[in-house]
Design brief:
It is globular, with a radius of gyration of 23 Å. It is an alpha/beta fold. The strands form 2 sheets. The chain has a 6-stranded parallel β-sheet, with helices on both faces. The protein has a 6-stranded parallel β-sheet with strand order 9-8-7-10-11-12, sandwiched between helices.
């Protein structure tokens, strides 16, 4: 039992640092407080809960008592799929909802997409067992988001199989891929113990993936990489701008302070380690800042300023990354956004979500020709795609010298977001096979 308790504690510590890496101290402490509050009210199911006998450890599975009772009453098996008997479609998503941006783009906005198709949709955090169990009873299909194999996720999947529910596994980063991790430059910014933890978790993600009936990923690049690890069908569903994003972005644009004579180049860093990304364009960026006195570097989120020359500190405006609305309001102060990415296997799977955020507030983006970014930014129309190191200086200088042109590009980016990148079932947003799988 001591080993089980120790494993659970390490699991909680790992999740705390995962949230810390992606969302910062505030979010990590808020979610820790919420978990402890649920635990104090008897809602935090864990593997530490003993069975009444204290010897068979069935208490690790809160649903075990129900399963045994159903089995004893010859009522355990569901003989016909609910999608056939109910004549309708209802999706239950069970996921790791700890990371705010991931929760927004891969979970919450799905409610809009599926309900537009007359398909019911509800979701639960995998540790909220009472809610997860309840929505499974009402579902015809299950989506599992960003889950790794552990006692709780295996228990919930067992219940889904008992209910004869088809399972779709969704993931938006190659967390299952040791080959991607080992080429990922951002990993070098993490403590060795945390890097080893991510690598050790990769097989747990893959185990969940290969136990599902089909997979869904966030980009065509990730789709290709996932196909190296599985023989399951792999669909993609790109991130998009839902109604809340469009509305919040418009409010941020309207609330933006009157422009001064400064030209702000924004860099958004949602998690630790993105200093490695900015380092790929540091030389041309510094050149622009030094040769154009009216420029400022606006940094949003995690960033260690020690990675920048000290003489630039008075040219930097830094904001903590808080909730999504505040993030967009800060982003709306920028005149352009830079989105550099190291050209590695991990980043080749990345989505263009930061470009969507910039477009939501009418700000053009200069992006690396890596991952899905070139598919989201129309070069020369809504921003620029930098394919060579020297492109960064040329494009940034062009925007700084002609702020009116930058503003026109931003307006075009917002219009493209409203027309092309909102939540629809068009093939560039979601694989037709994904819709067919549910329907």
């Amino acid at each position: 039992m001591a080993a089980v308790a120790l494993a659970h504690v390490f699991g909680l510590i790992r999740r705390f640092f995962q949230v810390l890496r992606h969302a910062g101290w505030r979010a990590a402490l808020v979610q820790t407080s919420g978990y402890l509050n649920r635990l104090s009210r008897g809602l935090g199911y864990t593997s530490l809960r003993r069975s009444r006998s204290g010897s068979d450890f069935t208490g690790r599975y809160p649903l075990m008592g129900i399963w045994r009772l159903l089995a004893q009453e010859n009522a355990f098996h569901v003989l016909t799929s609910p999608s056939i008997t109910n004549g309708r479609r209802a999706i239950a998503l069970i996921g790791d909802l700890n990371l705010p941006q991931c929760r927004k783009y891969r979970v919450e906005q799905l409610a809009e997409l599926w309900r537009d198709q007359d398909i019911a949709f509800d979701y639960a955090h995998f540790e909220d067992v009472p809610r997860a169990g309840r929505i499974l009873q009402q579902a015809t299909h299950v989506m599992e988001y960003r889950l790794q194999s552990n006692e709780t996720t295996e228990m919930l999947r067992y219940e889904a199989r008992r209910l004869r529910l088809p399972i779709l596994y969704d993931i938006d980063d190659p967390l299952f891929s040791i080959s991607a991790y080992e080429t990922y430059g951002n990993m070098q910014a993490l403590a060795p113990a945390l890097r080893n933890r991510f690598l050790a978790d990769a097989p747990k993600y893959l185990s969940m993936m290969n136990g599902a009936d089909a997979l869904c990923v966030s980009t065509p690049g990730l789709q290709c990489h996932a196909q190296l690890f599985t023989n399951r069908p792999v669909f993609f569903r790109r991130n998009f701008a839902d109604a809340q994003t469009l509305e919040t972005g418009r409010a941020a644009m309207d609330a933006a302070v009157e422009k001064d004579d400064l030209f702000r180049i924004a860099f958004a860093s949602g998690s630790q380690g993105h200093e490695a990304d900015l380092a790929t364009i540091l030389e041309p960026l510094i050149h622009v800042l030094q040769t154009c006195p009216n420029t400022r570097l606006l940094i949003i989120g995690h960033f260690n300023l020690k990675h920048l020359p000290g003489e630039l500190y008075n040219r930097i405006e830094k904001y903590a990354l808080v909730d999504y609305s505040r993030y967009l309001h800060v982003l709306a102060r920028a005149d352009c956004v830079v989105m550099p990415l190291s050209d590695d296997l991990f980043n080749a799977c990345k989505s263009g979500v930061r470009a969507l955020d910039a477009a939501a507030v009418g700000v053009p983006a200069v992006v690396a020709a890596v991952g899905d970014l070139p598919n989201v930014v129309a070069h020369g129309q809504t921003g620029f795609v930098a394919e060579k190191p020297q492109d960064w200086f040329a494009f940034l200088e062009q925007l700084v010298r002609d702020p009116a042109h930058s503003q026109r590009l931003g307006q075009a980016a917002r219009l493209a977001l409203e027309r092309r990148w909102r939540g629809t079932t068009q093939p560039h947003i979601a694989s037709p096979e994904l819709l067919a799988w549910v329907a």
